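Lecture notes, unit on protein representations.

Consider one protein chain, 210 amino acids long.
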Amino acid sequence: MKSMKYSMPLFMMLSGCTTTTSMVSPPAPLTTGNVVEPLPTVDTSETTVNDQASVIIYFSNTGNTESVALVLQQITDSDLVEIQPLQPYTNEDLDYTNDDCRANREQNDESARPQIANTIDLDGYTTIYLGFPIWWGNAPRIIQTLLETYDFSGKTIAPFCTSGSSGISQAVRMIETEVTEAIVTEGTRIDPDNAITELTQWLETIGLDG
């Protein structure tokens, strides 16, 4: 299926925003020294899933989640949409050494719903792969904005995340609470350096491997 990748700025990903014990470790960077690691090539002749009614919707900052989303797109032939915050996150907003940084305040405020700048069209899709980093053990609040803005009734949501150490279980529970009329699959945390193998195994586990 033709990709619907939006052209948007790449934002910094928060891996932790506090000095408390609940702070997750910063994710491993996608660079080695000053050399940017290339996106791994997927052998689509063996791994492509003919899922013609699927879309990957993701939120990314440093590029870790985006790199995983791009590999998933090659495997599934899904359309691709990036969530763009109306107010982009600056380095200061994501400064985990500052207890009062914007992302820290948002994650501590259950009512926080950062606005999304772009319109996301879900029409015609039955499967939605939802990707995001883990902030403070959960999905960023902007994911809740997405879930509360659009109708996911009857759709299958397959969550995946990137994180230095924290798992996705808390985020999956949040998604299940937000979209009770959707089917939420088992989620997974993906290492960007091993994305092809881990994504393929996950798709087999949740029954979306074709």
